[in-house]
Amino acid sequence: MSLQMKVPSVGESITEVTVSQWMKKDGDIVEMDEVICELESDKATFELIAEAPGKLIIKAQEGETLEIGAVVCEIEASTAPTDPKKAEEPVVLESTPKATGKVVEMKVPAVGESITEVTISSWMKKDGDLVMLDDPIAEIESDKATFELAAEASGKLSILAKEGDTLEIGAMICRIEVMEGISELQNEAPPAQLNTENKSAPDQNYASGHPSPAAAKILSEKGVDPSSIVGTGKDGRLTKEDAQKAEVGKVVAQDQASIPASRPETAGRNQRREKMSSLRKTISRRLVSVKNETAMLTTFNEVNMKPIMDIRKKYKESFKEKHQVGLGFMSFFTKACCLALQEWPAVNAQIDGDELVYGDYCDISVAVSTPKGLVVPVIRNAEALSFEGIEKEIVRLATKARDGKLSIDEMQGGTFTITNGGVFGSMLSTPIINAPQSAILGMHNIVERPVAEEGQVVIRPVMFVALSYDHRVIDGRESVSFLVRVKELLEDPTRLLLGV
Description:
It is built from ten helices and 27 strands. The protein is α+β, with helices and mostly antiparallel strands and 500 residues long. The radius of gyration is 26 Å and the shape is globular.
């Protein structure tokens, strides 16, 4: 018997979601309440939980856009009896790793031309663990991106740098005592038993205690420290349900006895401190630098989104069927900006010393919010891409951004930036320029508003758009004309196809 799992209702105004990531593979055996995939709407990311134990049959692939109520997967009930006593029996190892006497010293690798130091973000393995060649053992974080550190040999891990330590390029991170027979050991024992020094310890890995994107957002809004709650997801991951159940006052419950009797029990004055990541420190430094070193102004306009919404409603299914990717708003905005940038090249220029640099190409940076901070991957030569090409590149870059897999090259060299605060509900904002670029376009939420058309008041879906620009490079005439041109192209999308 198979159980069909469908897209749940995730919000009053949300009519469709995209399958962002599968945590399990087709054919895997899943447990009840286990996280099996992430669904992404235009506003947030949600986790899909297994509604029964059994064999997973995937019906929708990553990147597919589904309507509310559509079938995502099926779970085929498992009829095979299980013996709890047999499951608890320890695995007997038939071979033992043997030391070779060789020690490999692992140092901070060169991760980018302008990067001189990194921070140890997290260890995926513990001191004394047995690791395999090319196993991810730690995450190192620079001021631009996060990278995985892979084991350079198979053997016993000896950690020299702690989480949070900042090291220069070439500094020692850890040592690996090279051992033989680890591959056989790994085939015979589950990962939880590879740490021969502490077999009774619970299985811990990188997922343990780490919140999913949806859970991280909820915990951040509540002000709850993820380390203060226990995850019930796979490998100890904090799920959306864990975050929803977390109590704000639970962290300081043990301190209530020290509160004077005269103070109400509900009065809390707890604080917590977290060390700023290298990425967050760099974002802070650059934002302040841009405000201080540029003559930044913002001009606004409004766009009637009905023509684009009508096109998406009419063609989104056939577009998805043909190109295997959804038709979103970002491709329309990217195409409109590329045409306008070619007509107003100053908006696409930047200052280099005493010179202005003009590019005849449009490398569009797209702001992506991740649990670790804001990153801005670049769509190269966006002016030459089709709607399909833009949508696929956005999905690829956004997925890598969420997973912390973006390379330095994928985040450097943009000429113009688009940021969409509307996915979080922003009505209007003044975005800050992404230096050394000279302008950034801010998108916002779409709200039905009364507008005048041919002497009549009608209701239309309207988005406010904002262009922040460096007045040292771009004059008022150019900035306003650029934004008006973008508005014109978006309100008559056929111009985007004809280039007029």
